[in-house]
Amino acid sequence: MRILITGGAGYIGSELVYSLAQLPEVTNITIYDNLSRGNYNVFLGRKIEGTKVQFVHGEILDSRKLRTVLKNIDIVFHLAAKVTTPFANLDGHVFEQINHWGTAELIYALEENPVKQLIFLSSSAVYGNTSQPATEETATNPDSFYSISKYRAEQHILRLFNKTNALIVRLGNVYGYSKSMRFDAAINRLMFDAHYTGRITINGTGMQQRSFIHINKVTNILTQLLHKQVPSGVYNLSDKNLSILEISEALSTVYPGVESFFINQNYAGHNLQIERDAKILQYVSLPESNLEHELRAFKEQFSFYMSAAGDAFVI
Length: 315
Known about the structure:
Elements: E1 2-6, H1 11-21, E2 28-33, E3 53-57, H2 63-69, E4 75-78, H3 92-112, E5 117-123, H4 145-157, E6 165-171, E7 173-175, H5 186-197, E8 199-203, E9 209-214, H6 215-224, E10 233-237, E11 240-243, H7 244-254, E12 259-263, H8 291-299, E13 304-306, E14 312-314
Parallel strand pairs: 1-2, 1-4, 2-3, 4-5, 5-6, 6-10, 7-9, 8-12
Antiparallel strand pairs: 9-11, 13-14
Helix pairs in contact: 1-6, 2-3, 3-4, 7-8
């Protein structure tokens, strides 16, 4: 089984590489990434035995190079994207180029170089602002440059539904430790601030809901998909619907004494909830977990912490 991971050096990609490399049936993993985040951690630390992993430095808009790396590939995980918080509305041109047209280039290449399976990581942000937990049947309403670009990318994936096994996986907000960390994600940012400053900032009332899923669960599900007969389609993947206040309460247990500061307290904020019992769970299992335990495990990954006086101590 030969696998291509676009964006393989990123937050999720790094963990997915390690997970897939443990499978004896996976003979080759190609990481295709432009390293635009300046994150080289996938190349360091944990050893991957053998020579099954290779790296190709390439742009998702480089159609010629895409066609080259797709030769003899069986499965594609399409993770390459310009990512940000779900409701960000800045830098629309970059989102459109990378997320929308970058996906289009990949699909053009796949139409010439068919594979057995394509798994595309989209975002639950395509649902926009929800009043009830969204299901796959909920109408999409993308309302930011980021979510619009992801929705348009999905439209290109649809072209393959009758040609190959193509899965669109709409992820909730991912959190948790990875070697290639993203600290713009909500829980990760709050963890960093709680650990190193002893205070967190809450924008709005704190009652706004988000859908979340731990990165280990994401890679677990993606790995399971290799061994399941999941029909082409759109699938949600989320685990918990939490308000910012609920996250704050969990953090106060992990970090007793952490302070919470509110700004724009009259701002209700966006709500984005996803039904946990999604269609994908007909085919794969989603492990149970406890948020506090996950946050405590995350805490153990920090190299040091700051005392009340601002002095650094090694854990």
